[in-house]
């Protein structure tokens, strides 16, 4: 089976590209485990560099839901938003 890619259409409302990626990758790993492999870039995984953490990959691999992942990183997001506030232009 060959998949040439997917196209996602934004139809308005709340949309999180990170959540969409998490759910899509999780679904592929669940339904097509033979094809689901993480790509390595040197000593680490490419997805870890993109996500900025290995938690993203670890949570998907373990089959944990998006909501649990968000709870895990909530404190880090809050600290980042506080730190960046003084640099925001608007």
Question: Can you give a write-up of this model?
Answer:
With 90 residues, the chain is mostly helical. The chain is 52% helix and 4% strand. The protein contains four helices and two strands. It has helices spanning 17-31, 46-51, 55-61, 66-84, and strands at 40-41, 44-45. It has a two-stranded antiparallel ribbon with strand order 1-2. The longest helix is centred in the C-terminal third of the chain and has 19 residues, at 66-84. The chain is globular, with a radius of gyration of 16 Å. The model has no long low-confidence stretch (mean pLDDT 90).
Biggest sheet: strands, sense, closure? 2 strands, antiparallel
The helix-and-strand class reads mainly alpha
> Tally the helices: what do you get?
4
Uncertain stretches: none
The residue fraction in helices comes out at 40-55%
Radius of gyration: 16 Å
Shape: globular
Key features?
90 residues, mainly alpha, two-stranded antiparallel sheet
